[in-house]
Specification:
alpha/beta, cell membrane, about 10% strand, ATP hydrolysis activity, ABC1_TM_dom, elongated, transport
């Protein structure tokens, strides 16, 4: 990254980007401008009341007390008390409304980021650490809480108080006001320098927090703990986390101490200003100039003291906003991510899906790569038919299966469902039409019933049992102490691999899709478990269009058509018997499979 000295245009460009970012932040508050207008009225009313109090004090000192006017004194004193009460009431109402607005803005941001991520393609999540995503939603948006809930209102409130107080000070004595504000430009310059410094540190701090969150997510998951324990790396992981935390400590200290001494100088100077005012007033009298009355001086110092708090707060708010810009920038980065998988403006909706699949000269290559993963694929799977895709590791089998539910979009050619390009279908039709059972089964940390109902939220208990029976997992669930209310544990670790697969199959049966993609659903299972799961898969596949991505060839012999992929091309295709008679690549794979997995 270039420094200012390396690129003289970087500073204006940076300011232009900040200006654009501030306008974008202000747009977040646009839906709540009515409530913010009320806050503005309350802020203005509170500022007027607080500014009026010193004038009442001047009248007490210059008129009521010297002239012994008890009635006026009582009225003025009552006015000062009423002013304090009104200021407090206005402050409470202002805080309530501004906090509500701020929390709604944070809710909108969280929802917008989560919704954006839900629309991202699978490729985004394969190259992004889970902890990084979580950190953006939790740490970055959480770090903005003070800014969106109180800082904006504080800025308006303090700015209004400062302007009203300065006007009142000028009305009392313009010469003393000039002395009081002599160093104000210097203070503003210092606060801007501090804010820029803190913004840069905040950016680095949030990145470090994201890195630490990613480490925690990966190493403290069930899989991470198992790997660390079995590899004897628990101490090493602890040291790595300690190093990450140590770097965060340094950045946190630097963030909190950035410009602290310079801001302290401002605080000291402002605290010393009353003494300067008394000295100036006394010197003016000694030099024979027009002096201010005692009441005026006391009222002026009272106003100046009232100016001190909002002025310092205003400068500190400016610093805080500068730091918050780094957080907003990280959130906007996610909101600006291009969505690869989108729904057309006028998508096609199918009420009934037969299930015919066609791959027409399909090509697919990952972003940033030259060689295609799939190239020139022309295949047809009739409705209710079955297609098995086999081949060596890296042949493109899983990518082939991902194209049907649009986890990826083709880069050439097209995939059609009942003659309609899947890219033209609405998401609801595609989700209802295509069910996927993959090798890596994901279960939520919830009950068995809740995991099954994720496919069909309104499913009855009888439907759950029926789906579980078809997947041959009902008897096991029924034998559990809590039955279908049993919590499966993190990522389903209370269940074996075969049991998790059968739960996933039951979940898909409950959804009842006409098209089924089985992505190496039994490759990680032993022979006995595979046989049980295969029976469940056979029940699931009945009368459905089925695309099976196979690792073990014993599971695909009954497929209507078997396709052998090699380096992204169709090397062979036919039935099991036809391919065995050709004694080509498929036959070689079968013989290898027989050696690796003995039968009998």
């Amino acid at each position: 990254m270039r420094t200012h000295s390396q690129h003289p245009l970087s500073a204006p460009a940076d300011e232009k980007e900040q200006s654009r970012q501030v306008r974008r932040i202000l747009r977040l508050f646009r839906p709540y401008r009515g409530r913010l207008a009320v806050v503005g009225l309350l802020v203005g009313a509170a500022s007027l009341v607080s500014v009026a109090t010193p004038f009442l004090l001047r009248e007490i000192l210059d008129v009521a007390l010297p002239e012994g006017r008890t009635g006026l004194l009582s009225l003025l004193a009552l006015g000062m008390i009423l002013g304090a009460v009104l200021t407090s009431v206005f402050g409470v109402l202002q805080t309530l409304i501004s906090t509500t607005v701020g929390q709604r803005v944070m809710h909108d941001l969280r929802t917008a980021v989560y919704g954006r991520l839900q629309r991202m393609s699978l490729a985004f999540f394969t190259r992004t650490r889970t902890g990084e995503v979580q950190s953006r939603i939790a740490n970055d948006i959480g770090g903005m809480q003070a800014t969106v809930t109180s800082t904006a209102t504080s800025l308006v409130s303090n700015l209004t108080s400062v302007v009203a107080t300065i006007i009142a000070m000028i009305a009392l004595d313009w010469r003393l006001t000039a002395v009081s504000l002599l160093l104000l430009p210097v203070f503003v310059w210092i606060s801007r320098r501090v804010g820029t410094e803190r913004r840069k540190i905040t950016t680095r701090r949030q990145k470090q927090m994201a890195a630490m969150a990613a480490t925690v997510t990966e190493s403290l998951s069930v899989s991470g703990i198992l790997l660390g324990r079995t590899m004897g790396r628990s101490d090493s992981l602890t040291r790595a986390f300690s190093d990450e935390s140590e770097r965060l400590v340094d950045l946190e200290v630097r963030s909190n101490m950035a410009g602290r001494w310079r801001m302290s100088v401002i605080t000291i100077v402002m605290a010393a200003m009353p003494a300067v005012i008394y000295w100036t007033a006394g010197l003016t009298l000694q030099l024979g100039g027009p002096g201010a009355s005692l009441g005026t001086i006391v009222a002026f110092v009272s106003l100046q003291q009232g100016l001190f708090r909002p002025a310092v707060s205003l400068l500190s708010t400016g610093v805080q906003i500068q730091a918050s810009l780094a957080l907003f920038q990280r959130i906007f980065e996610y909101l600006d991510l291009p969505v690869d998988i989108t729904e057309r403006a006028d998508p096609v909706h199918l009420d009934q899906v037969k299930g015919e699949l066609r791959f027409e000269n399909v090509e697919f290559r990952y972003e940033g790569t030259d060689a295609p993963v799939l190239d020139g694929i022309d295949l047809t799977v009739p409705a209710g038919g079955s297609l098995a895709v086999v081949g060596p590791t890296g042949a493109g089998k899983s990518t082939f299966g991902h194209l049907v539910p649009r986890l990826y979009d083709v880069t050439g050619g097209r995939v059609t469902l009942d003659g309609v390009d899947v890219r033209d279908l609405d998401f609801d039709t595609l989700a209802r039409a295509v069910g996927v059972v993959s090798q890596e089964t994901y279960l939520f940390h919830a009950s068995v019933a809740e995991n099954l109902r994720f496919a069909k939220p309104d499913a009855t208990d009888d439907e759950l049992v029926e789906a579980a029976r078809a997947a041959q997992i009902h008897d096991h669930i029924a034998a559990l102490p809590d039955g279908y209310d049993t919590v499966v544990g993190e990522r389903g670790h209370r269940f074996s691999g075969g049991e998790k697969q059968r739960l996933a199959i039951a979940r898909t049966i409950l959804r009842d899709p006409p098209v089924l993609v089985l992505d190496e659903a039994t490759s990680a299972l032993d022979n006995r478990t595979e046989a049980a799961v295969q029976e469940a898969i056979d029940a699931l596949s009945a009368n459905r269009t089925t695309v099976t991505i196979a690792h073990r060839l014993s599971t695909v012999r009954g497929a209507d058509r078997i396709v052998v992929l090699d380096a992204g091309h169709v090397a062979e295709q036919g039935t099991h018997e036809e391919l065995m008679q050709r004694d080509g690549r498929y036959a070689a794979l079968v013989r290898r499979d027989a050696r690796l997995v003995p039968t009998g």
